[in-house]
Amino acid sequence: MNGLVIAVDGPAAAGKGTLARRLAAELGLPYLDTGLLYRATGRRVLDRGVDPRDAPVAEAEARALTPADLARANLRGSEADMAASAVAAIPAVRAALLEWQRDFGRRHGAVLDGRDIGTVVFPDAPVKLFVTASVEERARRRWLELRAGGIAADRQQVQAEIRDRDAQDANRPVAPLRPAPDALVLDTTSLDAEAAFATALALVRERLDTASR
C-alpha cells in the first residue's frame, strides 16, 4: 500500500471522516482530515475578530498554520463550520493549503478526506470515494455529535446550517463540492458505522483489484 492515495470526499456529517480514518488504519496508511486545515484557518481568522470572508487575512492565517492549530479543541460547532466554509471559498486560501495536502499524500501514500480531494488535490488518485447521506440524516448525526460533546444545539437549526453549508460548498467558484467523474458514490443514509465501513472497504478493494489487472 506504500504510495497509495485514497480520496474520500463528501458533504458535512456524511460519515466520510470516520470511514477515512478506519480505511487508513485497515490499510496501514497515514490519514489526513483536510477539513481541519480550513477549520483551523477559519478559527485563526475569528480569533483576530475578522470576517472569515476577508481574503487577505484568511490567506495570511492559512500560511501561518502550525500543527498545534490542528489540535485545538474549538474546531467544531456551527461557528467553526461556517468559518471553514467561508475561508475554503477563497482561492488564495485553497492555493496556500493545496501543496501542504499534496506533500502529505506523496510522502508515503495516505487516505485524505475533504471536499475536493478527488477533483483537485489528487485527481489521479486510483481510488476515490464520494460519501453522502440525506440532509435529515446528516443533521441528526451532527446534532448527536454536538450533544455528545456537551454543546447545546437545536436539531432544526443544525439542519438549516447543514443546508446552508451544502449550498456554500456546492456553489463556490473554486473547487466546488461534487463527485469526481470516476468516484465511487456511497450513500450512508441507511447504514450504521459498521455497514458503511464494510461497504467502503469492499469498494476500495474492488477498485484496487481492477486497477491491478
Secondary structure elements and their pairing?
Blueprint (H helix, E strand, L loop, with lengths): L4 E5 L6 H12 L3 E3 L1 H13 L7 H9 L3 H4 L7 H11 L2 H18 L1 E5 L2 H5 L5 E6 L2 H14 L6 H17 L12 E4 L5 H20 L1
Parallel strand pairs: 1-3, 1-4, 2-3, 4-5
Structural summary, described in words:
GO terms for molecular function: ATP binding; dCMP kinase activity. InterPro entries: Cytidylate_kin (IPR003136), Cytidylate_kinase_dom (IPR011994), P-loop_NTPase (IPR027417). The chain is α/β, with parallel strands linked by helices and 213 residues long. It has one domain: P-loop containing nucleotide triphosphate hydrolases (Rossmann fold, 3-Layer(aba) Sandwich), CATH 3.40.50.300. 58% of the residues lie in helices and 11% in strands. It is built from ten helices and five strands, in the order βαβαααααβαβααβα. The protein has a five-stranded parallel beta sheet with strand order 2-3-1-4-5, with helices on both faces. The chain is globular.
Intertermini distance: 16 Å
| Annotated CATH topology | Rossmann fold
Rg, Å, rounded: 17 Å
CATH class: Alpha Beta
Form type: globular
CATH superfamily: P-loop containing nucleotide triphosphate hydrolases
User: Strand fraction band?
Assistant: 5-15%
The main β sheet shows up as: 5 strands, parallel
Helix-residue proportion: 55-70%
How many helical stretches? 10
Q: Which runs of at least 5 residues are low in confidence (pLDDT < 50)?
A: none
Task: Tell me the total number of β-strands.
Answer: 5
Based on the coordinates given, report the CATH architecture: 3-Layer(aba) Sandwich
Which sequence of SSEs, written as H and E, runs from N to C?
EHEHHHHHEHEHHEH
Strand line-up in the sheet with most strands: 2-3-1-4-5
The secondary-structure class comes to alpha/beta
- Whole-number average pLDDT? 92
Count of folded domains: 1
Protein name: Cytidylate kinase
InterPro entries: Cytidylate_kin (IPR003136), Cytidylate_kinase_dom (IPR011994), P-loop_NTPase (IPR027417)
Subcellular location: Cytoplasm
Organism: Siccirubricoccus deserti
